[in-house]
Amino acid sequence: MRKYFLFVVLVLIGTWGASPAFAVNFGFETGEGYSLGPLSPPGGPTQAGWSGGAQAGFTNSDPTDEQVINTEAYSGTNSWHYARGYGSSGQGTPFSPITALEAGPGTQLDFSIAFKAASATGDGSEQNIYVGTTAGDDRTGFNIYLTNAAAGNGLSLHTFGDASFAETVFATNLSRTDWHVLTVSAVIDADPDNSVFQYSLNGALLYTGNSWPNVWRVANSFTPSYGNSIKFADGGGDTLADQGFYYDAMSYDVSVVPEPSTALLLGLGLVGMAARRRSLG
Predict the structure, then answer these.
(1) By the 8 A CB rule, do 233 and 128 touch?
(2) Are residues 4 and 130 in the same domain?
(3) In a shared domain, residues 207 and 106
(4) What is the mean pLDDT of residues 76-85?
(5) Residue 227 shares a structural domain with residue 113
(6) Range of the domain at 213
(7) What is the pLDDT of residue 6?
(8) What percent of the chain is predicted at pLDDT more than 90?
(9) How far is CA 229 from the centre of its chain?
């Protein structure tokens, strides 16, 4: 009996955290409330909880800039084709539906998305993916930059880990004709220097480090900012020649991560209960 209780305690300590979870999952499917056409059609309203952050729709959104399509899909029948758009670091770019819990200190954020280049030859498309601030007016959390260049690193992913903006290219010359799955796992600390971000591609962990937004804010005497959505932005200057990327199978959830001492105290309490029960029995 004592061994059983010890096993339960170890399992609880090892898996404590990630509860409760607040998740958002979708694949741009009709059954999820999506229709073919722009997420942010001219004149609005936007589809399925998408927004321009602190504003209702996307800025400078033309009908061919972005749209839900059924000619490409990682799973199901639909995907989102984000060809080009607004490149602001603030509001006006695509902000996804929000989670019920902000990805702030003491939480873990898990994000996954499938993507595919829209150009099979490399057209210079550049797009950025971040966490969108809760206020909908800035970027925060992780930072991922997708580039589809004709030469050099080809279809590649890079990030910046700290306030010095030292670039880390963690995936290069990816197949432009295949879908790829990007996953992010981030544990957010009250001190941004202690936050940990992990980026994986197609199941392989390629990056473990930090992310620049809140590290930069603190280094420049600004208050850290946290978010509850995923923010996309065009990094290529909204060039009409850019065909951009297809996105599908998007999911993200925010989980509360209790202090380690909380799990330890719970475990010690269960051990004590087990020992007392054994002595009484």
Answers:
(1) yes
(2) no
(3) yes
(4) 96
(5) yes
(6) 20-257
(7) 35
(8) 78
(9) 8
Cα distance between residue 187 and residue 62, in whole Å: 37
Task: Quote the CA–CA distance of 255 and 123 in Å, as a whole number.
Answer: 38
What CATH number corresponds to the domain at position 87?
2.60.120
For residues 199 and 251, membership in a common domain is answered with yes
Mean pLDDT of 72-76: 98
Report how many domains make up the chain. Answer: 2
Shared-domain flag, residues 180 and 66 = yes
Cα radius of gyration rounded to whole Å, the chain = 21
Residues 275 and 185 in one domain: no
pLDDT tens for 198-252 read 999 999 999 999 999 999 999 999 999 999 999 999 997 767 789 999 999 999 9
Residue 259 has pLDDT above 80, yes or no: no
Q: How far apart are CA 81 and CA 60, in angstroms?
A: 16
Structure tokens at 106: 């003491």
Q: At what angle do helices 260-280 and 2-15 cross, to 10 degrees?
A: 170
Phi, psi of 250 (to 5 degrees): -95, 130
9 and 91 housed in the same domain: no
Q: Which pair of tokens denotes residue 279? A: 């002595």
At 174-188, the pLDDT tens digits run 999 999 999 999 999
